[in-house]
């Protein structure tokens, strides 16, 4: 069987090396006589898997000791509710959350937060069709917000923060909360500049079903009374992410990915590869009039590259030809149309080159 190049935005491709290891351990993990899927989450076998995964993640992202690392369920969308449920208790009710609206995911986040408190859209690029990040000097932050929320990489729209916004001076120290679902572990992060970082696993980490939350110690224990116990960060932290049964197999695969990342050279090497892959693809898109990318150059995503054919009547033909050549999931999100190439850590540079070669061939045929 020949492996395809899967450009899906998530669930996304995993490193082949990881899949082979998981296949080899499927029936018998390290002589235990059972699969990881069959293990008790409280047994010593799984506890060792969990502890290694947590330790490797902390090392890869250089997470300071005063931050908890939590493995939860619910995905990024679920965390859009779990975050305000855990942080709005920091302030007298009704509390306010500041949002920087930069695309579809930050919009989903702010709409969810409205159910639990007040929302101030401090800045928005909606009028620009989410093709840029609002300039920092245009942000109208509240003086007493419970937190400030950003999505550092918009999976659907293809914009990415290339800097960490300093908001504390404008907000009386309100913590910065970042949804990093689609670019976590693809670039170094100064975790100390954030109060909370979260991300769904199904893009750069592992299979769907796991959400990782990195939360500073002082922000734990501030949940609203209506927060479900299974999502209360204090209870989850106190029980080593096992207050309820965690997604054990997903954590195991995530742990294998963390080990793979370390063997590759860690996050610094992933950033080098991400730059090489994205610069190749954007370089070609900028060189042709047959395709176009509409994102401002200073905030183009390295992970999710949306593009359009100028003649959109050719879209289906383009996708069919790509599939014939072993490249799938290039169709853009239904809300924006066009195409999208998601080039996460597991996508080799050969996959990006194959896509560019095909795009050139298609342009030559139809241009």
UniProtKB/TrEMBL annotation:
Enzyme class: transferase
Catalytic activity: 4-(phosphooxy)-L-threonine + 2-oxoglutarate = (R)-3-hydroxy-2-oxo-4-phosphooxybutanoate + L-glutamate; O-phospho-L-serine + 2-oxoglutarate = 3-phosphooxypyruvate + L-glutamate
GO MF, any single term: O-phospho-L-serine:2-oxoglutarate aminotransferase activity
Residues at which pyridoxal 5'-phosphate binds: 105, 155, 179, 202, 244-245
Cellular compartments per GO CC: cytoplasm
Functional summary from the UniProt entry: Catalyzes the reversible conversion of 3-phosphohydroxypyruvate to phosphoserine and of 3-hydroxy-2-oxo-4-phosphonooxybutanoate to phosphohydroxythreonine.
Protein name stated in the entry: Phosphoserine aminotransferase
Protein's gene: serC
């Amino acid at each position: 069987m020949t492996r395809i190049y899967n450009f899906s935005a998530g669930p996304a491709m995993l490193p082949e090396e990881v899949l082979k290891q998981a296949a080899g351990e499927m029936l018998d993990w390290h002589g235990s006589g059972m699969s990881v899927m069959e293990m008790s989450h409280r047994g010593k076998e799984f506890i060792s898997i969990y502890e290694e995964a947590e330790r490797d993640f902390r090392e890869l992202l250089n997470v300071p000791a005063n931050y908890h690392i939590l493995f939860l369920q619910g995905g990024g969308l679920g965390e859009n509710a779990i975050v305000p449920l855990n942080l709005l208790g920091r302030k007298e009710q009704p509390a306010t959350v500041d949002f920087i609206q930069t695309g579809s995911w930050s919009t989903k986040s702010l709409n969810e937060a409205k159910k639990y408190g007040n929302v101030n859209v401090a800045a928005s690029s909606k009028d620009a069709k989410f093709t840029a990040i609002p300039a920092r000097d245009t942000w109208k932050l509240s003086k007493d917000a419970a937190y400030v929320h950003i999505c550092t990489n918009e999976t659907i729209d293809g914009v990415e923060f290339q800097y960490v916004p300093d908001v504390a001076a404008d907000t009386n120290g309100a913590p910065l909360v970042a949804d990093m679902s689609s670019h976590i572990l693809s670039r170094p992060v100064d975790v100390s500049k954030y109060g909370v970082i979260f991300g769904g696993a199904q893009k750069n980490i592992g299979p769907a079903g796991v959400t990782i939350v990195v939360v500073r110690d002082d922000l734990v224990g501030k949940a609203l009374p209506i927060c479900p116990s299974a999502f209360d960060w204090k209870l989850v932290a106190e029980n080593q992410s096992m207050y309820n049964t965690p997604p054990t197999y997903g954590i195991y695969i995530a742990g294998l990915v963390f080990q793979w990342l370390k063997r590759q050279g860690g996050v610094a090497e992933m950033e080098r590869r991400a730059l090489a892959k994205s610069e190749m693809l954007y370089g070609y898109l900028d060189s042709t009039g047959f395709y176009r990318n509409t994102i401002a150059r200073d905030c183009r995503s390295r992970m999710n590259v949306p593009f359009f054919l100028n003649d959109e009547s050719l879209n289906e033909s383009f996708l069919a030809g790509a599939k014939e050549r072993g490249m799938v999931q290039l169709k853009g999100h239904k809300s924006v149309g066009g195409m999208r190439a998601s080039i996460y850590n597991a996508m080799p540079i050969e996959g990006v080159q194959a896509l560019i070669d095909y795009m050139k061939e298609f342009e030559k045929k139809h241009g």
